Amino acid sequence: MQIQRWAVLLLRVSLVTLFVVLLLLQTFSFPGQFAFMAQQHPQSAHLRWPLTFVFAFWILCAQVVLFAIWKLLALIGANRIFTSVSMTWVDVIVRAIAAAWIILAGVLLYVGLHADDPGLPLLLFTWFIGVTVLGLLMIVMRALLRQATALQTDMDEVI
Fold first, then answer.
1. Could you report the per-residue pLDDT of 3-34, keeping only the tens digit for each?
2. How many helices (H) and strands (E) does the chain have?
3. pTM to 2 decimal places
């Protein structure tokens, strides 16, 4: 039990750190990077705002996932993880991953059709597979949580 408390504490510190870093990337780094790219490569300047929007959206999806994980950790701390409330936060995670996946599929399609070198499409495809695996894993975990919640409810009724 002591190890679990430390793990939860370290996970919370990591979540806050990651959230802040993502916020810095979202507000300062990527917009500046794409503005610089537009200045350095005027032939690609038309991609500045779409890329800024796409990266901001992906980071927002990641922030939603981090917040939902934070809420699930709070439910673990309150010993209420096997309740319907936790299903709501798991659904939020699944939806955020699905939204990021849809945009990623569109970007992969666009880049795949316009690329003259296979490097970027392969990188995006690898990222696409990774997000797909993550989303499917969350769906499986959601089903397991649903079963565990049903078993917990049955056990509570018996006791």
1. 888 998 999 999 999 999 999 999 999 999 99
2. 5, 0
3. 0.89
